[in-house]
Amino acid sequence: MNKYELAVVLSAKLEDEERAAAIEKVKGYITRFGGTVTEVEECGKRRLAYEIQKMKEAFYYFVKFESDSNCPNEVEARVRLMESVIRYLCVKQEA
Fold it and tell me: 0.85 cut: is pTM over it?
């Protein structure tokens, strides 16, 4: 099992319930493809380095999980299609 960290940037236009539902959906994708979520860190609303889709701020989340090497590819393919996600990045953590 490898350790991964998925950074998810959600639109600032979302309500609290919509953000919670989006993160639950991401966690569901991870568990569906054989991973286990170890930690979800909410960093709150932050200013973006540059404007994305005419937004200057967004909500940042970091989801840490353990899985085999196939899970991150499947999760990224699903997260890419989510409308509420404006950016994402999945990286493998060093052992």
Answer: yes
